[in-house]
Design a protein that fits this description.
Blueprint lengths: L1 E12 L2 E12 L3 E5 L6 H9 L5 E6 L2 E2 L5 H6 L2 E4 L11 H8 L6 H14 L1 H5 L10 H13 L5 E5 L7 H18 L2 E6 L2 H7 L2 E6 L2 E7 H4 L3 H8 L3
Parallel strand pairs: 3-8, 3-9, 6-7, 7-8
Antiparallel strand pairs: 1-2, 1-4, 4-5, 9-10
Helix pairs in contact: 3-6
Bound molecules: adenosine-5'-triphosphate and magnesium ion.
Length: about 240
């Protein structure tokens, strides 16, 4: 089933147009990467999907138009976005951050089980559960941002540049966790990245955005060998 179906999506900041008729689809259970250079429109696209920015065109999620659905309601429908720069609450502990991620879940036992499950996946967070998020390393903060988003029980998890400021080995670790979420928990992932080669090793499919337009797309295994696309749009030498 198509989980996310985007057609002719345009978005504006005041009078400035940032997205131009973008169309692409994400199937349920897929791990999709959205690649593009600085200022291409990646964050804008995620914001339109999660409800932080109005759009023209259409976004269908599980067959339902998102046009009139507010951001908080979209979270309730299973759409979670991990913002660029992580957005964890630095003055709260790791455990409190997870709790804050579960505000839309009413069952305490469910929250307890979910915490346990994600502490299992991220053992370093369990070790640091009582530490302030602001004192974690960059990689740990990104893991916390992912775990916090998971606490809302999303179907579609969107993550904006998880690798920002992280060493390649940590980036690899985080992408491997996404792969596990996708494989073992059936989660659908839309991950924005500039780290083209590493990301294409983990994703099923990728789209390339350039100057607000989707300019290429296909199976990650094909794109990884497509030197033309990498050179033209992604700044890979
Ligand atoms: N709040 C805003 N007000 C006005 N213009 C904006 C705003 N946010 C982004 N833009 C513009 O929209 C375009 C797309 O920006 P966006 O943040 O989506 O790019 P990006 O692909 O996420 O880049 P990066 O990799 O640097 O995060 C850019 O030209 C940017 O200057
Ligand atoms: Mg961005």
């Amino acid at each position: 089933m198509t989980l996310l179906d985007i057609k002719d999506l345009s978005a504006f900041y005041g009078k400035t147009q940032a997205l131009f008729d973008c169309s692409f689809a994400v199937e349920e259970g897929e791990f999709v990467a959205l690649l593009g250079s600085n200022g291409a429109g990646k964050t804008t696209l995620l914001r339109a999907i999660s409800g932080l920015l109005p759009f023209k065109g259409s976004i269908f999620y599980a067959g339902r138009s998102l046009e009139w659905i507010a951001a908080q309601k979209r979270l309730g429908l299973g759409i979670a976005q991990i913002p660029q720069g992580r957005g964890t609450f630095s003055e709260f502990t790791v455990d409190e951050n997870l709790q804050l991620g579960a505000t839309i879940i009413s069952s305490r036992s469910q929250i307890r089980q979910d915490k346990e499950r994600w502490y299992e996946t991220f053992p370093r967070l369990r070790e640091r559960r009582d530490q302030l998020a602001g004192n974690l390393s960059g990689g740990e903060q990104q893991m916390l941002a992912v775990a916090r988003a998971l606490m809302s029980r999303p179907k579609l998890l969107m993550c904006d540049e998880p690798s920002l400021g992280l060493a390649p080995s940590i980036t690899q670790e985080i992408l491997a966790i996404f792969k596990t979420l996708h494989r073992d928990h059936g989660m659908t992932l839309l991950v924005v990245e500039q780290n083209v080669d590493i990301t294409l090793q983990y994703a099923d499919k990728a789209f390339v955005i350039e100057a607000g337009q989707i300019v290429a797309g296909g199976a990650a295994s094909d794109l990884i060998n497509n030197e033309d696309i990498k050179k033209s749009y992604l700044g890979v030498a």
